[in-house]
Amino acid sequence: MDVVVTSTPNALVRRKSCFRRLRDDGFLRDFILAYKTLGVVFGGLVTSPLYVYPSMSLHSPTEEDYLGIYSIMFWTLTIIGVVKYACIALNADYDGEGGTFALYSLLCRNINISTLTSCVSSTATSSHSNHPMSINTKGRLGNLLEKSTTLRRMLFFIAIFGVCMLIGDGILTPAISVLSAMDGLRGPFKSVSKTTVEVLSIVVLLALFLLQRFGTSRVSFLFSPIMGAWTLTTPIIGMYSLLQHYPSIFKAVSPHYIVHFFWRNKSKGWELLGGTVLCITGVEATFADLGHFNKRSIQMAFLLAIYPSLIITYAGQTAYLIKHPNDHYDGFYKFIPQPVYWPMFVIATSAAIVASQSLISATFSVIKQSMHLDCFPRVKLVHTSQSKEGEVYSPEANYILMILCMLAILGFGDGRDIGNAFGVVVILVMFITTILLTLVMIVIWRAPLILVMLYFVVFFILEGVYVSAVLTKIPEGGWFPFVISIILAFIVFAWYYGRQKKLDCEVKEKLSLDNLRDLLSSLEIQKVPGLCIFYSKIQDGFTPLLRHHLRSIRSLHEVTIFTTFRYLLVPKVNPCNKIIIKKLGIHGLYGCTIQYGFADSFNLEGDDYVSQVINILEDHIRQNCDGHSPDTVNEEILQLESAKEMGVIHVHGKTRFHISKKTTAPWISFLLEFYEFLHRNCRSALPVNGIPTEQVIDIGMVYNV
């Protein structure tokens, strides 16, 4: 007798109800996002098996040495990757944004420690953090940071140095990833020289950098399948390898193997930490790219795919090396079975390209954020996606990265030396994150002191040991990211100091409203038909450029809108707060403040931008008529429309310093001269924001220093 099992209506209802709960809970959405995250966030991390073992200087390694190394990598990935980033750092988001800038801005928003007088850290125009422990009380440490100028400057320098090291990561990740992947050609073809591998790597990177201008979106549909294939195939091969060569490899999870490793190798074991640190390459991206994906999707991708894939892959590599101890110089390709060698070579090369792409894109985003905070010379930024604000491309930055990346390959050649440089970047960025996150836990979260100390002591010691180890690699290639970071930090500091000095001069010589009335009455000012948007850096008052303009030209447009860009230390500004309009008390003169955060995309597109300002201004006039008759209000609105139709002119000041060698200290003189060099060679502010050049009038002025 056949038995037929059918689904009852109640079972179907239960299955549909379960699916609906998953959908409503956002699980399916987060699962899809987690899959996409593989190709964007974890590029540098998932390709680390390519270059971890080759970066180590091993001499006659034994079975116990490999077990100790695997134990170190297992616990490093677990403690730093899982505990620090997946469980703690991802909760320190700033309105959905992550990374060094987000942590620094989070501190600036909650306590008045901003050293950027052109930026605002007020909470008035931003929403508060959604963290359940976030409160507004400052505490002793917060008050100390507010009062101490030295501590504020140190904190600013730490944040900037972390950003500079991340840009260095964007140089080294493409170099080491592609070079390590292409080195697989030397296995089957013994005649392939190291020089050939370098040339082929440069060709691949050249093509990658030249394709950046098309944007990530056009090729991103390939990223997740490539990384999905990588995270699936490498642990399968790892499992095969460990079963084939050393099935008991997971006994190395016991920490006593780490103790025995350092007991036997002593200082040599400590030096090898400069190579094992590369197992967490790219884990900082899980936090830095928080703005592109939500927290749960990143956690799912890391905990369900990346972490187990890396643990099993490293286990397979270690098992193979225990049986073949002298193959560590090519630890990845050697442990791949011969029948699947070429498919894995293709997957590895593709994964290296994706890893390079993700770090290059992250570098563009960091440069964009730095420019928004007025901490970096202006370069051209092109938005390559209509739907994703974070996708930007900078031609100047792209070609500079390309040249430096190629120089790194040609200069070092050997992947071990690049690995030494890479290790310096990796651990120092994480060390800076630990410091900033500790301050967030104390000042903002107000976490119990015992938990803060537990976090700080564990990660300060762990990462501090790694830092001490990688610093020994400075003569062997580690100097490269330091030199790059110091140069970038000097550029940032010189630009910041010059901008601050210029702003101080403007504030000192600014015009008040009464000064402007007196000036207009004392000079025979002619009213010119049309609309003038006069740009200024001063929030309260008028730029001294206006005095210079009125005395020289003796004319003023019928409608003049004094516009100030206001960079807020928040990721994004509410759209209704982006453009703020006010009347200035003089007929035809208005004030406009344009606000945006470091993760905002605010592009001034000519007529659309002017129309937006005019529309908001008209609404402001209607809502604040102050007892005026409707005819008066309509007349003022008609004047605005008429002025716009007559033509729009954007007046922008170009100020420079006249530096007196007699009264200015030599180091200040050098900084200001370098700033003037940067200012002359960077892009003008208005064309960067999309203002048509034919509508721009520049006014020159000199400040004596």
UniProtKB/TrEMBL annotation:
Coiled coil: none annotated. Residues 529-704 form the K+ potassium transporter C-terminal domain. It is found in: Membrane. GO terms for molecular function: potassium ion transmembrane transporter activity. This is Potassium transporter. It is a multi-pass membrane protein. The keyword Glycosyltransferase does not apply. Keywords: Ion transport, Membrane, Potassium, Potassium transport, Transmembrane, Transmembrane helix, Transport. Its main location: membrane. Belongs to the HAK/KUP transporter (TC 2.A.72.3) family. The lineage of its organism: Eukaryota, Viridiplantae, Streptophyta, Embryophyta, Tracheophyta. It comes from the Eukaryota. InterPro entries: K+_transporter, K_trans_C, K_trans_N. Residues 34-516 form the K+ potassium transporter integral membrane domain. Pfam families: K_trans (PF02705), K_trans_C (PF22776). Potassium transporter. The chain crosses the membrane at residues 31-54, 66-87, 154-176, 196-214, 221-243, 272-290, 302-322, 342-367, 397-415, 421-445, 452-472, 478-498. GO terms for cellular component: membrane.
